[in-house]
Amino acid sequence: MNILDKLQAGVTTQSPEETYAIARELADTLPEEAVLTLEGDLGAGKTTFVKGLAQAWRIQETVTSPTFNIYNLYQGERQLAHMDAYRLEESPEIWDELMLEELISPPFCLAIEWPSKLPFIPWPITHQLQLAANNEPRTITLKKVT
């Protein structure tokens, strides 16, 4: 079974390392311009999942939650833009204000936590992921692939 099939069925992870492994496996399948939305409650593993993507692309920097920065950019074999929209005010000008379109270039992956806080996303969303946790284990489900 390939990773997309596994994720559509829902994958349960017992540890951060298992979450990293799922993210690394998905990273190998992503298109050159990938946009992932990561939905889930606080502590569901969204940033942990992004850390797994960073491992896959050999990013050396420590990946941290961008809650206060809004987004962090990392460069490895692929550029990774990690965004947390939780604190954003809904505004049609948000993308102009963030200037992400000027800062990212292919191959890239934009991973957006709390995407429902955004009025729109200027790139096509390639994968919508739902993360859920009741402590451990955690479940990662692929809601949609375009």
Structure in a nutshell:
The chain is built from 5 helices and 7 strands; from the N terminus they run H-E-H-E-H-E-E-H-H-E-E-E. By secondary structure, it is an alpha/beta fold.
Describe this structure in words.
The chain is an alpha/beta fold. It has five helices and seven strands, in the order αβαβαββααβββ. α2 packs across α3. It is globular.
Keyphrases for this structure?
27% helix, alpha/beta, globular, 5 helices, seven-stranded mixed sheet, single chain, 7 strands, 146 residues
Q: Layout of SSEs?
A:
Blueprint: H1 3-9, E1 11-13, H2 16-27, E2 33-39, H3 46-56, E3 71-75, E4 79-84, H4 94-98, H5 100-103, E5 108-113, E6 127-133, E7 138-145
Parallel strand pairs: 2-5, 2-6, 4-5
Antiparallel strand pairs: 1-7, 3-4, 6-7
Pairing-aware structural class of the strands and helices? alpha/beta
Quaternary organisation of the protein chains: single chain
Query: How do the strands of the widest beta sheet line up side by side?
Result: 1-7-6-2-5-4-3
How many DSSP-defined strands? 7
Order of helices and strands: HEHEHEEHHEEE
Q: Tell me, what's the shape?
A: globular
End-to-end span in angstroms? 19 Å
